[in-house]
Amino acid sequence: MSLQAGLSFDQAPPFTLPLRFFLTAPLFLLLAAGLIVSAPDTLAARYTPRAFAVTHALTLGFLAMTMLGALTQMLPVVAGAKLPQPGLVAWLVHLPLVVGTLALMAGFLTAAPAAFGVAVGLLGFGLAVFLLAASVSLARAAPSATVVGMRLAVLGLALTVVLGGALALLRTGWWTPPGVPTLIAAHIAFGLLGWVLLLVIGVAYQVVPMFQMTPPYPPAQHRWLGGVLFALLLLYAVAPTVLPRAASSAAIGVAGVITLFALTTLRLQAKRRRKLPDVTLAYWRVGMASLIACVALWLGAQFAPGWRAGDAYPMLLGILFIAGFAVSVVSGMLYKIVPFLAWFHLQAQLQARAGSIPTMKEMIGERRMRAQFYLHLLACGLLLVAAIWAEWTPAAGTALAASALLLWLNLLAAVRRFVRHGGRFL
């Protein structure tokens, strides 16, 4: 299959639009690592100010930053519908997301109501701008499995933002929302599953067969997997107040959908036509294995109430999902997207002949990517150990910092090569 089959590259935005998000994201990963190193008890409990700060550095600063940047590129190329005023949207989203995330982290660490107020204002504004622009773009797009997945993920992000804003206002002291534990559970569910996982599922339908040379996903999964997952999440969110007995059924259904997606992806990757080593494929495999491990850990906890009530269980589950699955898949995607965009924009700007500009594989050295992959694996393993034995926390944070720094330097290497060969950003 041609790399460009079914894609509208003539509508691709300037390289700088997604690049600003991609180069900022690893710095938040580095910041999260610094917080982990600085306090040995960071991973000891889930509801501590430092744990909240680290979690939002990872989810907002790294994951959302990268995913929003990717969508500024993928909406016009994959969905075939441009964002309205893409340059302005990028500015109005990127800067508020950066400063708002820093303010939110400062709010958790200092308990200053003003910091939460700033965070609510900036994050609410920046994410609202993106949601509005993305909604306009997706409304114009022709329906496909990827477009439907993106629509559901954007809706999941909207619900996450609303719920998160309500919880942040609680900390400012301006408003006390009802049912706080239920709000927290729904915020986590829609943020991790309704936004991150649903977007990965929707994007996987396009990028796994295209970049990894696999067969396509089964048509039945295209049609119903994303919709079923979103419906189950809605049921899980409202069940505690409306249908208490349905919450466990919804959770079981979500676990089934996660397992099916992960196993299907691994099966397709085993059938890939190109058998050459590929570090991005390794990242995806780690991500899918981590999803399966999340389900296994959750199932085990259902039979051990004492373990489920402790602090180690939610921390392990969070590490497996955020670091093991989400950070792995997003890192693998960065190693495909950034080299491809650098090559594509060089080709478009210079109309270069084959051999006169670097290929995609030459944009970032394979050894550098593989070294960073091994550091990421080490960091994930040490984070899991540190969730049980706190004395391992500094080592886990150090490994994560080294992984984040090398990821950033590797992405910069592709940008430097782009500039060296005559690439222009405007």
Provide key terms for this protein.
426 residues, 78% helix, globular
Structure report:
- There is one protein chain.
- By secondary structure, the chain is mainly alpha-helical.
- The protein is built from 14 helices and no strands.
- It has helices spanning 16-38, 49-77, 86-110, 113-140, 145-172, 180-212, 219-238, 246-270, 279-302, 305-309, 312-350, 360-363, 366-386, 393-420.
- Helix 1 packs parallel to helix 3 and helix 3 packs antiparallel against helix 4 (113-140).
- It is globular, with a radius of gyration of 21 Å.
- The two termini are 31 Å apart.
- Mean pLDDT is 90; it is low at 1-6.
Average pLDDT metric: 90
Largest sheet: none
Number of helices: 14
Helix/strand/pairing category: mainly alpha
Distance between the termini: 31 Å
Helix coverage percent: over 70%
Shape: globular
> How many strand segments?
0
Compressed to H and E, one letter per element, the order equals: HHHHHHHHHHHHHH
Rg computed from alpha carbons, rounded to a whole number of angstroms:
21 Å
Low-confidence stretches: 1-6
Hey, roughly how much beta strand do the residues contain? under 5%
